[in-house]
Design brief:
Elements (H helix, E strand, L loop, with lengths): L1 E6 L14 E7 L3 H7 L13 E3 L14 E4 L5 E4 L4 E4 L10
Antiparallel strand pairs: 1-2, 1-4, 2-3, 4-5, 5-6
């Protein structure tokens, strides 16, 4: 599956709108949990992980956190990262995989 990971620019644990977020990566992954793992710096910078295409221009970027979103580019479903798990939102926005 291919997903796009968005970070909340306010760095708060609350999702407001996908339009207010910053696309930081495209990820080839098995599922949403795998995308979350691949965009967290555990042993190395997360953007160096296999299957991750970095979309941010800065030298560094924080790990994916609660309040961020992972969009399945096949279904257009938005998966909001919660403190425990994910909340899925249906979206009218069409994500093309090209931003």
């Amino acid at each position: 599956m291919k997903v796009r990971v968005y970070h909340n620019p306010d760095d708060v644990f609350d999702f407001t709108s996908i339009e207010d977020m910053i696309a930081v990566a495209d990820v080839e992954c098995d599922d949403i949990e795998h995308a979350m793992e691949l965009t967290m710096s555990i042993d190395d910078d997360w953007w160096k992980n296999s299957g991750v295409t970095k979309l941010f221009e800065d030298e560094i970027c924080r790990s994916t956190n609660a309040g961020d979103a992972i969009v399945n580019l096949d279904t257009n479903k938005i998966h909001v990262v919660e403190l425990l798990g994910f909340r899925t939102i249906e979206s009218d926005v069409i994500f093309t995989g090209k931003e």
